[in-house]
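Provenance and format

Records in this collection were gathered into a single text stream. Each protein contributes a sequence line and a token line. The two records reproduced below are adjacent in the stream.
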Amino acid sequence: MDESALDPTREIILDDEPAPEVDVKIKVEKQPIWKRDGHLDEAAYEDHMVRLVDDLLDESERAWKMTKQRWMHADKRLELDLIFDILQSSSAIKSDLPLVPQAIEEKIAVQVESLPRPSVVARQETQEQFVGALNQFVGEELDSNDFDILMMKVALDMARFNLGIIKQSVDPYGTGPFGQKGKILLKRVDPRHIYPDPLSSTFEGCRYLIEARPMDLSDVRELFPLRGQEVLPESTYTLNRRGETRADEIEISQGSNGSVHTIGERQRALVKEMWIRDD
């Protein structure tokens, strides 16, 4: 070892010329999600996600089965209570019974009539003008989604199942109330179609949340224009017409894209949407 390297009095001669500047450009190539997650190709990734959704849906269905059965009993009790009220009326007739769902909605409407709309509140005086304009924008978006009617339906779910859900999404091809590209959509979700993570005590803490609902194939193709044509009808959810026509006499028509349509059937499939925490 060179002892001079340990000598604190040793002179160190530096070059006065500055180091040349090096222009370094780092190009980060964005990898497709299937490659980033370590799958061989896109088909392997899709197969993995399909299996994952099915497994998690099965896990949640088993955990929430008893709860959803209690929901159905509570829903029946609510309907029977309204039927009893109608039958107690001195002017009740049999034709009143089909009006039970309407009576339930009217009862709920009275409860939600005074509910305030979502709004933004200014924290400083300097924000009042901006907040006023923002509330106008929010109001227009709520009106375009029939928010008051939507809230009545959600409040009805809360009375029936003790749970109300609104799903917010954006239609990139739609036009907003101010002519802007993209339309904000607010839709009521049937709680019976929701399957949360059974290991979480709150919605915020869920690792995943699944909405599984039967849909007509025409609606599936409209909602998913790129891949909707690949969805096939499922016999469990397809509705058959009850009539005199026998099954072997139902006509079959061949579409231009090779799809087969059965006359007398409402072809449907179970569509599953999953939100999963990415952390």
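Adjacent record:
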Amino acid sequence: MPIQRRNSDWVHYRVEFSLTREDEVDLHFGQRGPHQDYWEVMAEVRVMVENALIKAQRNRRPYVLFIHGWSTSRPGRTTARSEVRQFMHSPAATPYIERNGCIQDEAVFLAKVRRHEGGLSTPDRGAAADVRAPAEIDREAT
């Protein structure tokens, strides 16, 4: 069964799939710095998605909800939504997700996390993978 497609009130996923705040990744970054390249931000989205899935596997969480919004890509511009969807459909996501348990909704993507009994087969990206927005990390560093 492939990734399910829905157009629903996604906030109900929180109850339906027993999600905690730690199971959600909000990709609405807000204002970026004037010197931060748009493509850097989009590349960071992909890293944040992968790190969130690694963290969920380590913590044995069954789902991660990526809140990416409704914005759609247009020629010359990608969005967090398209970055999330491209990653989830790519072979790079296979170690982390079970596609038949995933839901692609209009404003969110609910990823069913692949469980690994007896240890994780994911690359070591550090014990505390950082899934915060890049601007949030930058503010903390200053």
